Amino acid sequence: NREIHLASRPTGWPTAENFRLVEAAVPTPGPGQIVVRNQYVSVDPYMRGRMNDVKSYVPPYRLDAPLDGGAVGEVVASQAEGFDPGDVVLHGLGWREYALLDATAARPVDPTLAPVTAYLSVLGMTGLTAYAGLLEVAAMKPGETVFVSAAAGAVGSLVGQIATLKGAGRVIGSAGSAAKVDRLRALGFDAAFDYHDGPVRDSLAAAAPDGVDVYFDNVGGDHLEAAIAAMNLHGRAAICGMIAQYNATEPPAAPRNLAQVIGKRLTLRGFLVADHGHLREQFVTEVAGWLREGKLSYDETIVDGLDQAPEAFLGLLRGDNLGKMLVRV
Ligand code: NDP
User: Fold this and answer.
1) How many angstroms is it from 321 CA to the middle of ligand 1?
2) Are residues 179 and 303 in the same domain?
């Protein structure tokens, strides 16, 4: 049973030395418990925050203990009613080969309805983040212009497509490479740009000549500043993430134009997907329908081997991924 432990807390950008591969015993379940052999584990940007020893909405990872996070796997031993070996479950003890957990913390998933990876991406927390952020937090209305950053990533690529499916007038995405920009166009984005090609403010102004009504922020910093500059009267921003500053050791230099929220009567609203569970049923029904009808695509970047999980995580922060970054255990 291999596990990835946090060996030390990163300062700035994490390195391979912050992680350690540890051999541990395969656990056995007690009453009410199951043991799951993980098939896929998720690596997510929020994990960077949990590597710092600071108080936040989720507790920090402990040193010299396995990290955790979303995972899907097969039950291999069970002492819990309703769970049998062979069942596939979604749970929160990733970054390890074998997970021991209370059955109440596992959610059965149906591998015949969708590939199991989809429960960690389009049909899971990632998809719900896009759906809830765009439709509930930012309350996008048909005809509006939507801008999303980190648009070729897991959440962003779904935000843009859902916006189009829900009747957005114009959908614009930014991403970190020409290949990603091409992918966004293929996914149906009306405009896309590589944020390395010039100031985000200029690229966005060119892509959104009539301004932006809804901004879905995954990046913060200069992207948020550019969006504030481009936003129309009564514009709304769903503040989902600020990945540009997760490894920062200095406070961000932008946005410098926050005062514009007053004159433009903007709403900038932060949110956590965990608060939007009430949308889950509606979200699964609608998104599964779009998938079935071939109206929604989702990308996954799958890295092989649990020992490669730290490298996959570093790759996620660097932008190596198209769509959801996953590790096949
Ligand atoms: P992604 O799949 O989008 O992966 C992260 C991407 O961020 C990378 O691929 C990279 O793409 C981009 N990126 C990294 N650094 C920068 C930078 N300095 N400037 C611009 N882009 C950068 O991850 P997720 O879809 O899982 O998450 C997207 C965002 O949503 C994150 O900020 C995350 O924290 C947040 N989130 C928030 C949730 C909530 O409940 N509020 C829930 C889930 C996610 P590129 O090549 O384009 O640079």
Assistant:
1) 10
2) no
